[in-house]
């Protein structure tokens, strides 16, 4: 069969670019994948035995394809020049300055990438927007590229949002629910869609590859994240009702989720959702709606975020209340700091909010997470949005590499991440080394609460009166 594409470049070697291209290289041995980044440190890590991100199964794939048809490089111009197809998977954080501050997506890095392509390309390219962007962002990329177009160079711009979740990135990429490709509905646009589709068809059944117009594709990505986050906020809102009435949120979620129209996934009540994207993408959607003069729609989605803030704060307040309204100078063990299990990522993790509130009340924290580096925890907890006094935080926080050390003489344990290993710890031993009364606050509903109560723990969890 004719090879429609032989060389792909990906700009941005982060949580999306790295795993996506690694799996593509693994599934398409005849395509040469080059992942480039302006961060030399990140690229060096991708070329080492300690990858810059942790994902189950990722290292095995990287090791197998690296320097065969998978390359990590800081030489961005060369990679752009050689490739027929270029993914842009740079970060699109919430703007923290100027117009739309705190809500709009900052497209600076996407624009930088587009300008780099415009400057270096000497042949035609398919440019694929993989980053999550506002609706009509592809138009801006198109303007930049086409305004700088050289003779004999033409650009097709596609939207191909990524739906992988962290912690399951490799499995999601190997076996996605769907691949979405948006493009211009012209002959050239449709041909570009077909070409990218051909790449995915190397391992994904054609029925699962969906093509739409560009704006639908861009909006679908924001919509999917908004729907997912909305389910969590919905169940979390009910968890408060459960705690006040004696209903059990797990039972409610099960009963509701068995309706096949509703479905059972993503109804796990928790301390709140975290991660780099849900909040950012919904804020972006809200901002877009306001710009379109649709204030009712904006307010509707804003509630998903407000409910999440409420949940994180409500859980933290409950800890303080249970500990006799004072945590001042009390040692509190924090189990888990990542925003979910099987990742070392802490972006927007609810653990930050919980720790912030406890620190403000004078608690001493002993933090244990199996994958998050101590340096990362300190950098998160000493950031300007958490404290005005980083030195105070450094004094009040210890990061432990062993959960049993973290609980010694602690008044309470707070579970912030649902790591499997927290279920199999020796809680008899833990109880023995803690201050009494010993409290456990299970923000993830993963522990055996009956067994813990039998040991002597006072247990509090989300969505159930114990
Ligand atoms: P990330 O911060 O981990 O990685 C982005 C990388 O791009 C960084 O390494 C940065 O150095 C690099 N970069 C920025 N500008 C550059 C430039 N001009 N040239 C070269 N490199 C540049 O971000 P991420 O988590 O991979 O997210 C990337 C995009 O994908 C975002 O838009 C995000 O919303 C979206 N997304 C993320 C996830 C996820 O699970 N993290 C899932 C789906 C979609
Ligand atoms: C999410 C989406 O699931 C992906 O499809 C999407 O590609 C990605 O965002 C993105 O655009 O970045 P991710 O944030 O990596 O993926 O992880 P999720 O599994 O969605 O979890 C997000 C947060 O919600 C976590 O803090 C998790 O603990 C929490 N959560 C999830 C719950 O509290 N309850 C649930 O039932 C499910």
Automatic annotation (TrEMBL):
Q: Which InterPro entries match?
A: 6-PGluconate_DH-like_C_sf, NAD(P)-bd_dom_sf, UDP-Glc/GDP-Man, UDP-Glc/GDP-Man_DH_C, UDP-Glc/GDP-Man_DH_C_sf, UDP-Glc/GDP-Man_DH_dimer, UDP-Glc/GDP-Man_DH_N, UDPglc_DH_euk
Q: Does the keyword NAD apply?
A: yes
User: What catalytic activity does the UniProt entry give for this protein?
Assistant: UDP-alpha-D-glucose + 2 NAD(+) + H2O = UDP-alpha-D-glucuronate + 2 NADH + 3 H(+)
Domain UDP-glucose/GDP-mannose dehydrogenase C-terminal as annotated: residue spans: 333-449
Q: Does the keyword NAD apply?
A: yes
Report the EC number(s), separated by commas if there are several: 1.1.1.22
Catalytic residues at 277
Q: What is this protein called?
A: UDP-glucose 6-dehydrogenase
* Highest classification ranks of the organism: Eukaryota, Metazoa, Ecdysozoa, Arthropoda, Hexapoda
């Amino acid at each position: 069969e004719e090879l429609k594409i032989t060389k792909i470049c990906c700009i941005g070697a982060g949580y999306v670019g790295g795993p996506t291209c690694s799996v593509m290289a693994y599934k398409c041995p005849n395509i040469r994948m080059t992942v480039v980044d302006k961060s030399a440190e990140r690229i060096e890590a991708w070329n080492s035995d300690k990858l810059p991100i942790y994902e189950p199964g990722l290292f095995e794939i990287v090791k197998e394809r690296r320097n065969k048809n998978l390359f990590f490089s800081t030489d961005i111009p060369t990679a752009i020049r050689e490739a027929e197809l270029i993914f842009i998977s740079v970060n699109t954080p919430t703007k923290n300055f100027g117009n739309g501050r705190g809500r709009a997506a900052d497209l600076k890095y996407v624009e930088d990438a587009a300008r780099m392509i415009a400057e270096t390309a000497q042949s035609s390219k398919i440019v694929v927007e993989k980053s999550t962007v506002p609706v009509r962002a592809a138009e801006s990329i198109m303007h930049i590229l086409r305004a700088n177009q050289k003779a004999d160079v033409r650009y097709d711009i596609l939207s191909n949002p990524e739906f992988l979740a962290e912690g399951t990135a490799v499995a999601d990429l190997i076996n996605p629910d769907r691949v979405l490709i948006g493009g211009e509905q012209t002959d050239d646009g449709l041909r570009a869609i077909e070409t990218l589709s051909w790449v995915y068809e190397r391992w994904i059944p054609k029925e699962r590859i969906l093509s739409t117009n560009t704006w639908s594709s861009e909006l679908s990505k924001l919509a999917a994240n908004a729907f997912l986050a909305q389910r969590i906020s919905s169940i979390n809102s009910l968890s408060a009702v459960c705690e006040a009435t004696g209903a059990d949120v797990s039972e409610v979620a099960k009963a509701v989720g068995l309706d096949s129209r509703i479905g059972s996934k993503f109804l796990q009540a928790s301390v709140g959702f975290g991660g780099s994207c849900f909040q950012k993408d919904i804020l972006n959607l809200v901002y877009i709606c306001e710009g379109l003069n649709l204030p009712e729609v904006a307010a509707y989605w804003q509630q998903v975020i407000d409910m999440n803030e409420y949940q994180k704060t409500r859980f933290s307040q409950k800890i303080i209340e249970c500990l006799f309204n004072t945590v001042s100078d009390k040692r509190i063990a924090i189990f888990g700091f990542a925003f979910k299990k099987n990742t070392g990522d802490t972006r927007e993790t609810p653990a930050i909010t919980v720790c912030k509130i406890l620190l403000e009340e004078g608690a001493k924290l002993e933090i244990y997470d199996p994958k998050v580096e101590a340096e990362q925890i300190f950098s998160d907890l000493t950031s300007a949005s958490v404290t005005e006094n980083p030195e105070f935080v450094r004094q009040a926080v210890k990061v432990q590499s062993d959960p049993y050390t973290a609980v010694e003489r602690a008044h309470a344990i707070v579970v912030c991440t649902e790591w499997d290993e927290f279920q199999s710890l020796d809680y008899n031993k833990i109880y023995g080394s803690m201050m009494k009364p010993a409290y456990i606050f299970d923000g993830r509903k993963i522990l055996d609460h009956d067994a813990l109560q039998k040991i002597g723990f006072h247990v509090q969890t989300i969505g159930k009166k114990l």
